[in-house]
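EI: anyone free to look at a 178-residue chain?
SC: sure, send it
EI:
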Amino acid sequence: MPAIRRTLHRRLRPTTWTQYGGLAARQVAIYDFSAAQLQASHETQRSHPGQLDVRSITWFLPPFKNPFFGGMMTVLRFADQYKRSENVANHFVITGADDPSPYRAMIEQAFPGLTGDVVSAVPSMQDVEKLTPTDVCIATYWTTAYYQLLFNQTRRKFTLPRFTSRGSIRPAPPPLRS
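SC: here you go
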């Protein structure tokens, strides 16, 4: 009996490749862009050459559960420092989320100096068109770079390497260059 059970289990369980294929198909449907969208992003940046006086930053963040791990603390430290030293207005955008409330609470708990900064959620990439314009925007994870690509209510776009809780670096996608 155990041999039959093992054989059935092997034949009926999804393989790693089957699971990967399904995940890849779902992600390709979500994280895709056209040549026209890429061109629009390039044009946005080309139209603002030279040095900028940065007064506002949109931070594209993936959904997170803890502001103290997975690189989120590093991102929030940067935002807090820019606010304190340069008087920059931060706009945190949680990508793929419906409700910004829990993220606002976590950000404010971790960094009280960020209390009052805008925290919004964009459930889909099409929703970035509704965001408030800012001087620059920063993608903080590879998935957030796709949202950033469509956000052309800015003058410059940057990526930030993603730090893991163990201190190693996960590279962000290459910067979108003109």
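EI: The chain has six helices and seven strands.
SC: 👍
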